Amino acid sequence: GSGTVTLSLRVTTADMNGSGTVALPDVPPFVNCLAGPGAASSTGCTCADGNGDARIDLRDVQFLQNRFRF
Question: What CA dihedral angle connects 27, 32, 36 and 39, to 10 degrees?
């Protein structure tokens, strides 16, 4: 028979390594994704784009700071 499969995917903004939390190991890859004003983000940086504008800039750093766990 046929059926429907529903998948749920939870993406945590700024969780660069997919661990489910934002912590120190996420900082270096986040910094590598930072682009200058008006520049497009690099491939693999989608979760660093906290405000969804397709750019990783200082506005997105706030999302990293707000989600960071010590």
Answer: -120
The answer to whether the CB of 51 falls within 8 A of the CB of 63 is yes
pLDDT, tens digit, for every residue of 4-49? Answer: 887 655 567 889 998 988 999 999 999 999 877 667 667 788 889 8
Closest CA to 14 of 36, 25, 30, 32: 30
Closest among 56, 53, 59, 47 to 15, alpha carbons compared:
47
Start-to-end Cα distance in the chain: 49
Residues 20 and 18: their CA atoms lie apart, in Å, by 6
Dihedral pair phi/psi, residue 25, rounded to 5°: -65, -15
| Tokens 């390594």, residue located | 17
